[in-house]
Amino acid sequence: MKLRYRLLALMLAAACAMPVQAAQPGVLNIAFSVMPPWKTIDANGEAQGPYAHILRLLAEQLDATPHFIECSLSRCLQLMQRGEADVALGMAATPERVAYIDFISPGLEEDSRIAFFMRSNDRRPLARYEDLAGLRVGVTHERRYFARFDSDTSLQKDVALHTAESMRKLVAGRVDVVIAPVLHGRSVLAAESLAQRVRQMPLQAKSYGGFIAFSRLSPWGPYRANVAMAIMRMRAIGQLDPTRQMSRSRRCERATPGWRTPGCAYDAGALRP
Q: How many secondary structure helices (H) and strands (E) does the chain include?
């Protein structure tokens, strides 16, 4: 009996000596860079679009309050690197980023193709990667597309802050071609009323894929297993498919088909080539 009490005393002492794990954070800080049709900001400054909806569902799964931080892509990356943002969606899983970001599987169920766009009256062919030689290619600052293109130093790359800026340069003749994710490029053309002046070319490539990016310095680090489990649950019930997470409202229902109303679902039919 004395031995039993001694063992119990030792167990209690060990338990008291163990560090107490901090409570799970109550806020999920989300780095949010605008990228229609997936990520938009409405007239009230609220994050909208299917990616915002997915991230709100993730916060709900984690019993946390979502806090969206609107930032440029380069700024969002800095926030993730410092742990000032916990998660992001829509970032390419490139080798340099995995040094400070965990890209959690399973990935999004989305169209991950990369496309190239040229002026409608430009008859130069662009069906093979080699056709890019000698062309000025409009790219977005800090955005990554696919490994061969990103590492190709022989190409003439013209950097803009946003895809819309590159598309305007294209129409003005300042660049020859613009690279962008398929649906993002088509959405920008529709929003800028440039769909008749720009065409999508046959050349396409597969991107790095869409994962939920998780900062390694995030206060959520000790609860990474909880985050991964929440993502698996969301995948199992179809909540990681952006095309199913479109907002529905009277304002959206009244939107003109083919036009991008901030915070509303894009018209998939209008975005087809």
A: 8, 12
